[in-house]
């Protein structure tokens, strides 16, 4: 469901996706978007009105310094870089998300754990374009929630300029090399209880 956040191009609620056991992801649980620094005054007001429990800004420190979040001083805001800070890169190449997962497991898991520990209310995650880092974290969260790869890919394909094949390849690599999302995250330091907390938060 598209979010009416003026200034954000890729804002949407990932509720309503089917899970393998016949349930659905909960609306108002996980919201994804591009960077909040683009929000208009109306967009900022809309985010505040949504009752967000935690905002996770997945960008690097240098990005947040260059384009600060309008919520940087709010208690709900956390800058939580998803991957190690590297040179600027375009990451929709077929293998880029795989490399992201392979080389940043502990850092990615550390951010994921923060999803489980967040206070009540919607979780809002964003990077710069709302595509790559956001796409990987949301794919992991939806996998833990039991959403099948095809449905995760269909959601990802709603992102401007993206196709579902990128996420399907990423999830296949996650299974083949790391044993799936649960194994990837537990080996990265997450507990099974923390994974259950994320699943229970996302699934109605």
Q: Tell me roughly what share of residues is in helical segments.
A: 40-55%
**Rg, alpha carbons:** 15 Å
Category by helix and strand content: alpha/beta
Spatially, the strands of the biggest sheet line up as 1-2-5-3-4
Q: How far do the termini sit from each other?
A: 16 Å
**Beta-strand percent range:** 5-15%
In the predicted model, the low-confidence regions spanning at least 5 consecutive residues are 87-92
Q: What fold name goes in the CATH topology slot?
A: Protein-Tyrosine Phosphatase, Chain A
Order of helices and strands: EEHEHEHHEHHHHH
Mean pLDDT: 94
How would you sum up the major sheet?
5 strands, mixed
User: What is the CATH architecture assignment?
Assistant: Alpha-Beta Complex
Describe this structure in words.
The protein has one domain (12-199): Protein-Tyrosine Phosphatase, Chain A, CATH 3.90.190. The protein starts with 11 loop residues before the first strand and ends with a helix. 44% of the residues lie in helices and 8% in strands. It is globular, with a radius of gyration of 15 Å. Helix 4 (105-117) packs across helix 9 (192-202), helix 5 (132-144) runs antiparallel to helix 6 and helix 6 (149-156) packs antiparallel against helix 7. The longest helix has 15 residues, at 164-178. The chain is of the alpha/beta class. Strands 1-2-5-3-4 form a five-stranded mixed β-sheet, covered by helices on one side. Helix 2 (61-66) links the parallel strand 3 and strand 4.
């Amino acid at each position: 469901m598209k979010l009416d956040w003026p200034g954000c191009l890729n804002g949407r609620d990932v509720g309503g996706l089917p899970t393998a056991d016949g349930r659905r992801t909960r609306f108002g649980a996980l919201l994804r978007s591009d960077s909040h620094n683009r929000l208009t005054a109306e967009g900022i007001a809309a985010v505040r009105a949504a009752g967000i429990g935690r905002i996770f800004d997945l960008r690097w420190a240098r990005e947040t310094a260059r384009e600060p979040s309008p919520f940087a001083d709010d208690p709900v805001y956390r800058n939580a870089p998803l991957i190690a800070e590297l040179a600027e890169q375009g990451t929709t190449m077929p293998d880029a998300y795989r490399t992201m997962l392979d080389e940043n497991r502990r850092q990615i898991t550390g951010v994921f754990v923060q999803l489980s520990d967040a206070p009540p209310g919607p979780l809002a995650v964003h990077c710069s374009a709302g595509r790559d880092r956001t796409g990987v974290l949301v794919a992991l969260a939806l996998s833990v929630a039991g959403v099948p790869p095809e449905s995760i890919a269909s959601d990802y394909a709603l992102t401007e300029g993206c196709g579902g094949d990128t996420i399907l390849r990423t999830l296949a690599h996650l299974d083949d090399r790391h044993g799936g999302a649960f194994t990837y995250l537990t080996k990265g330091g997450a507990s099974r209880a923390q994974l259950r907390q994320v699943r229970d938060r996302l699934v109605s």
